Amino acid sequence: MSEPAHILVTGGAGFIGSHTVDALMTRGLRVTVFDNLSTGYMGNLEQWDGHPRFQFIAGDVTAEVTQPLTLAVARFGHIERIAHFAAQTAVPISMDDPAGDIQSNLAGTARILEYARHNKVAKVFFASSSAIYDDDAPVPVSETSSARPSSPYGINKLAAEFYLDYYARLYGLCSTALRFMNVYGPRQDPKSWYSGVISIFLDRAVTGKPITIFDDGEQTRDFVYVTDVAEIVTHALLTDAGNNAVINIGTGVEVTINALTRTILDLAGSASPVRYEPARAGDIRRSVTTMDKAQALLNFAPRVELREGLQATLAWVRQEMTRPAARSGSAA
Question: Is pLDDT of 1 > 50?
Answer without folding.
Answer: no
